[in-house]
Amino acid sequence: MSAATESQDRSQDGSQRRLNVGLIGAGNISGQYLQTLNRLEDLNLVGVADLDLDRARQVAEAGGAQGMSVEELLASPEVEAVINLTIPRAHAETSLAAIAAGKGVYVEKPFAATVAQGQQMLAAAETAGVVMGSAPDTVLGTGVQTARAAVDAGQIGAPISAVATMVTAGHESWHPNPDFYYQPGGGPLLDMGPYYVTSLITLLGPVASVIGASSALRTEREIGSGPRAGEKLPVSTPSHITGALIHESGAISTLVMSFDGTASQAPPIEVHGTEGSMAVPDPNHFAGEVLLARDRTGWQPVETAGGYVQAGRGYGLADLLWSGAFDGDPTLGRAQGALGLHVLEVMAGVLTAAETGASVAISSRADRPSAVPLDPR
């Protein structure tokens, strides 16, 4: 039995194993993780850490856990795995410290701030024999997984191409401190791209090479809310990126990630094949309607056919647990760090290609994750 098949079978059967979890980083996204941790009995939150200890205690109280320092959490023999919700530039440092402490790690997207840091994280986890997982896990929900089931069932024939589109006016209209989004390491691709690229790989497989183009035609932004409303921000990273992803299968995906529009009516993702086309719902969400067009009758809804029905943030870690990754084989499960690194390298490659005007080969390899059967959890 292959690892992918074993992972899928174990996921269907479930697991009685309970995992003691520590959470590092008590920012806004932690609340969404708490909803999952409070609901899934298989994930037992025992500690929350943050540089702001008061904030850590507040989040911990909401999760029935203990607030503590990062050092205390990593030293705790009770903690088996760490959910790393720190800011991207701290992903590597925090993950490496957790790995050195013998903990498994599940890190928010993007996997790391740089490809080199991501490679270091993956190598350290492999050497230590611990689990290294990565968000996003929205692809495990019924939206993308129903689309995956349709592709696997041949409903669009052989996949030829895909188009992924994310166009907004930027985050400065609502975010009180949006500086990061317009600095190196920010921008629409690294911010939102992981959802789209991970979905494209889930549907069409890993990427062999990329090309890209980018612009930053607006040199400053104005904060629209909070105490800094009206303040101008300089833009020092591309705010509109277009890329072409050449998958190992030969399919080509076009990627448009932009903070330079107002809105878009384009489907978040469209996939076209020899026998049909498919519209995929927003990959930043776990559910949504999949539409299929095979003839002149137009778009028809597809019955939900895959994915975790109740999925929320943190299901990537749960899937690793249910798949057996914490029972001796850290490579089992879908939300693997190898996939997170591959997604990061694809995005970094698009940005490099945009700067140089040359095609960029992707050196990392990640298997197309096994499909998630329709699962009531």
From TrEMBL:
This is Putative dehydrogenase. Pfam families: GFO_IDH_MocA, GFO_IDH_MocA_C3. PANTHER family: BCDNA.GH03377 (PTHR43818:SF11). InterPro entries: Gfo/Idh/MocA-like_OxRdtase_N (IPR000683), Gfo/Idh/MocA_oxidrdct_glycsds (IPR050463), GFO_IDH_MocA-like_dom (IPR055170), NAD(P)-bd_dom_sf (IPR036291). The keyword Protein biosynthesis does not apply. Gene3D superfamilies: Dihydrodipicolinate Reductase, domain 2, NAD(P)-binding Rossmann-like Domain. Transmembrane segments: none annotated. One of its GO terms (molecular function) is oxidoreductase activity. Keywords: NAD, Oxidoreductase. The keyword Membrane does not apply. It comes from Nesterenkonia sandarakina. Residues 19-132 form the Gfo/Idh/MocA-like oxidoreductase N-terminal domain. Residues 144-278 form the GFO/IDH/MocA-like oxidoreductase domain.
